[in-house]
Amino acid sequence: MKTYTNPIYPYVRSRDQDAGPARHAVVVVGAGPIGLAVAIDLAQRGVPVVVLDEDETVSVGSRAICYAKRALEILDRLGVGQRVVDKGIGWNVGKVFFHDALAYRFDLLPETGHRRPAFVNLQQYWLEEYLVDRARELPAIDVRWKNRVEQVAPHRDHVELVVDTPDGPYTLRCDWLIVCDGARSPVRRMLGLEAEGQVFRDRFLIADILMQSDFPTERWFWFDPPFHPHQSVLLHRQADDVWRIDFQLGWDADPEEEKKPERILPRLRAMLGPDARFEIEWASVYTFQCRRLQSFRHGRAVFAGDAAHVVSPFGARGANSGFQDTDNLAWKLELVLAGKAPERLLDTYDAERTVAADENIRNSTRATDFITPKSHVSRVFRDAVLGLAREHPFARRLVNSGRLSVPAVLSGSPLNTPDADADFAPGPGAMIPGAPAADAPVTGPDGSWLLRYLESGFTLLAFGNAVTPDAVEALAHAPIPCRVVQVGGGPVPGVTVIGDTEGLVARRYDARHGTVYLLRPDQHVAARWRAFDPARVRAAIARATCND
Amino acid sequence: MTTLVTDPNLPDPDGFYERLIAMHHGLSDAESALVNAKLVLLLANHVGDPDVLVQAMAAARRGVGPPA
């Protein structure tokens, strides 16, 4: 590759290899984006983490390239969001073509007044490199490269691992094992667990090309284009003038043959024209699946990211949902390790994230079925939809080239305190219990975006002088502390006051004077009320931590 | 005259489309064509309004084959 050189992270012999089996609180298997994210999140919470990775570098090839707004917000909290946004390519417009003509265009640009855009495209290796850099800043993280897990033995209160290294194997024990070793998850296999679901009978060629081009920075999707008949093609721009092109090949394609440049180049020339100047950076042929583990928690082993669930790539619901896994898991594990919450709090990780995984699987299965019709009649319907879409707006809603990742609303979660006050406005985007907190521009001591004020632990977001000073004090010193962030109103000791200059916080949270929101450490709404009541807040925190 | 609704009117478009395709599961092409015809007839009867049905027929035929 011309635009990227994989860094080498040298193997370093660990002290654990010289003594008897060491016991750690948390071991993470896999230093990919999800393993590194959960390690950083835990370390930022003061939990020491050992990360094991069989390799000594970041992703080879660009792989996951589309990072959604919610993932960027999570990465902001982990300290790498800005680097990703600075390096990546933001985009909002998508175009869908059918045969040789535009069927329709869509604009993902959400309402203004959010820090992060709908999507940023960035090669996975850059993201991983930034995460490794961040992990190295945190002394609580010990990343061990060239450490391959060979055996896993689950016990009632710990997991024992045999880890192979260039110096030979050693044994390691941990209270909790977080399994983030990817879609093929060797640890999952060693534990005899299988992800259940559907394998799609289709193959796709991914080609990353280096090209100076005046193509706009948009997502372009073709159904049955003249340059690649009967199949679909997807074009995305990445950083460093690298463009991602996905060619649907069909099930009968030979994956080894299709990876050869002499097979790829004619496809690219047909698409880009005889005069286009480009070089192939990386290419791969893949099939995909939509499936998940029945349960994401197996005793002291907890699964996250692709090791827990895999989806087809249409909709960018893989890595983006993995970051939501780690966001959900880290604060719960911190409380359990500190003895502040019972182990069953981790069962709610399973409950909340399997629901989210099913939503992602449902959406990406539907997209895949639209893109790869499985019968004559479904192809006829698809072509009818595409034909109608040019003229009729209703048909555009039916065109499915991927429903792009949005964060899960955990509306059925047992951790939520249902609304007691019935006058909150319903509707899409409502901040109901379980919803991820909406961002908004604010003024205050820690910058100009609301989410920045909701980053550590439980937070009570109060509109006006809703919380009395003694209640602020009591919340701050409870076993599970809760900070108060106040929107407007006069100063109160121990309270951060922010300004709602554009009125968007009040509007997005359907708030009036006295409204309070309880937010979990992962920024999901746990409860909300029209007036502050300390006993109700205490009860809601207890419920959100399985202490009720 | 009532105008044919071509703005989005399905509350859950993806769910509808999934059920539409699932309706054909296990059918031959000829059987699918028959099921589609029955579906059109049922929906036409539900709609009732001849003006709307004529507009829908014209919109469906547009761009397919020679001009009707």
Structural class of chain B: mainly alpha
Indicate the low-confidence ranges of chain B by residue numbers. Answer: none
CATH level 3 topology of the domain at 15-78 and 122-195 and 290-359 in chain A: FAD/NAD(P)-binding domain
From the structure provided, what is the oligomeric state, counting identical versus distinct chains? heterodimer
> How far is the first residue's CA from the last residue's CA of chain B?
22 Å
Number of helices of chain B: 3
SSE order of chain B, one letter for each helix or strand: HHH
CATH level 1 class label of the domain at 15-78 and 122-195 and 290-359 in chain A: Alpha Beta
CATH superfamily of the domain at 15-78 and 122-195 and 290-359 in chain A: FAD/NAD(P)-binding domain
- Uncertain segments of chain A are none
CATH architecture of the domain at 15-78 and 122-195 and 290-359 in chain A: 3-Layer(bba) Sandwich
What is the typical, i.e. mean, pLDDT of chain B? 96
Radius of gyration of chain A: 24 Å
